[in-house]
């Protein structure tokens, strides 16, 4: 695992609102690696917001842009902390690439905490309308989607700093 670790990115996956973006920043600071938020990277590459991609071209166009961004990010030679979008795991080839080039950590949380964290976020295209109903439906649809990860951490009762500390300690112990 030592040689693999030196070449691997730390890839955070999980449902929206589990803390991927915040933990990514904290973990990058702790370990001294670059932080990459895939949603921000997609917006930079596409020159528009994610909700606009969804509105103008639909989810399929967004997922294509997401896969392209993911593969480009994972091909970078320096270790990075990567926060993926919650749906990046929906394509099997994305999961395979994450496992090949990364140490994958799934962040989870219970539905009530996720709803509290994302209910008022108008930038999330999949939550338009009744956010609670959308979260519950998507959680059910993606129930096993994050199971491929090397490690899973439930963030429900943890602060983002506690999550970053757990990951950082585990990473350093890997050698």
Helix segment count?
Answer: 9
Shape: globular
CATH class: Alpha Beta
Structural class: alpha/beta
Tell me the number of strands: 5
Notable characteristics:
5-stranded parallel beta sheet, nucleotide-binding, 5 strands, 14% strand, 54% helix, alpha/beta, 175 residues, kinase, Rossmann fold, cytoplasm
Short description:
It is found in: Cytoplasm. Mg(2+) binds at residue 21. The chain is an alpha/beta fold and 175 residues long.
Question: What is the secondary structure topology, with strand pairs?
Answer:
Blueprint: H1 2-7, E1 9-14, H2 20-31, E2 34-37, H3 38-46, H4 50-57, H5 59-74, E3 80-83, H6 92-101, E4 102-108, H7 111-118, H8 131-141, E5 151-154, H9 160-173
Parallel strand pairs: 1-3, 1-4, 2-3, 4-5
Helix pairs in contact: 2-9, 3-5, 4-5, 5-6, 7-8
Function: Catalyzes the specific phosphorylation of the 3-hydroxyl group of shikimic acid using ATP as a cosubstrate.
Protein name: Shikimate kinase
Binding site for ATP: 17-22, 124
């Amino acid at each position: 695992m030592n040689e693999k670790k030196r070449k691997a990115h730390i890839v955070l996956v999980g449902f929206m609102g589990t803390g991927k973006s915040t933990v990514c920043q904290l973990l990058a600071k702790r370990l001294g690696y670059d932080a990459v938020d895939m949603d921000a990277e997609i917006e930079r590459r596409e020159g528009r917001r994610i909700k606009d991609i969804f509105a103008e071209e639909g989810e399929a166009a967004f997922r294509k842009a997401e896969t392209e961004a993911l593969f480009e990010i994972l091909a970078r030679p320096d270790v990075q902390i990567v926060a993926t979008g919650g749906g990046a795991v929906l394509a099997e080839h994305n999961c395979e690439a994450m496992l090949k080039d990364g140490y994958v950590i799934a962040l989870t949380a219970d539905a009530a905490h996720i709803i509290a964290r994302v209910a008022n976020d108008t930038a999330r295209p999949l939550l338009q309308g009744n956010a609670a109903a959308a979260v519950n439906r998507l959680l059910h649809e993606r129930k096993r989607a994050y199971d491929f990860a090397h490690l899973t951490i439930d963030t429900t009762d943890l602060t983002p700093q506690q999550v970053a500390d757990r990951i950082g300690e585990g990473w350093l112990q890997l050698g």
